[in-house]
């Protein structure tokens, strides 16, 4: 895990920090393939170029302002592509459930990135153009279903942030603007989340999801029960002393 503080006054600061973190990242020894997944906000050309230089793969959403090497505007491709070219494809969500999308896939060439696979996807066949998601990847021989499944994994990050905001008060700590304190205010809820998983994660069945609210309630109940038992033992000991004195 790595934490960086974004300065809104610096243009493109999130992508600058993302490139720094990518260069500093060292995969564990057992890792064979690294796939970077991100939304369109991180799809800067320099960021994707750094990913290629490092030797990683990527599955990114693209902003509609991008153009292909042949001059095709992605905004025009999403707006004017006839519906008859879309095909229904099943993908796997992060929790294992199936979700179908209507997709159009083509090989394309982007300046600075070279040959890539472009996927246009939408939830419903009659969705308007502004609801179409444009995905790009350099994964070799990946099926459309695999590309969609890879991109859906980033949704786990959003779910985790939502749980930590509501269950562990992420972002609600009152700290100064000092950078290291802001970083700690983000890291502490994450560490609390990991602690709960460390305490109770071994009891979960393979593939079973964990609710932060249930784990937090269980931890609170055990702490209260331990405190109650400690107080009860203390008063029992005092009662025995009074009886011996009497």
Instruction: Report strand order across the widest sheet.
Output: 1-2-6-5-4-3
So how many helices? 7
Q: Which radius of gyration do the C-alpha atoms yield?
A: 25 Å
What's the CATH H-level superfamily name of the largest domain?
Transposase Inhibitor Protein From Tn5, Chain A, domain 1
What shape does the CA trace take? elongated
- Helices and strands, in order, run as HEHEHEEEEHHHH
Unreliable residue runs: none
CATH class of the largest domain: Alpha Beta
CATH topology of the largest domain: Transposase Inhibitor Protein From Tn5, Chain A, domain 1
Q: Please bin the fraction of helical residues.
A: 40-55%
CATH architect. name of the largest domain: Alpha-Beta Complex
What does the average pLDDT come to?
Answer: 86
Provide the domain count. 2
Structural description of this entry:
With 246 residues, the protein is an alpha+beta fold. The protein folds into 2 domains: 13-153, Transposase Inhibitor Protein From Tn5, Chain A, domain 1, CATH 3.90.350; 155-246, no CATH class. It is 43% helix and 17% strand. It contains 7 helices and 6 strands. It has helices spanning 13-24, 45-54, 74-80, 144-152, 155-167, 179-200, 212-245; strands at residues 35-38, 57-61, 87-92, 98-110, 114-122, 133-137. The chain has a 6-stranded mixed β-sheet with strand order 1-2-6-5-4-3. Helix 1 (13-24) packs parallel to helix 2 and helix 6 (179-200) crosses helix 7 (212-245). It is elongated and about 100 Å long. 15% of the residues are buried. The model has no long low-confidence stretch (mean pLDDT 86).
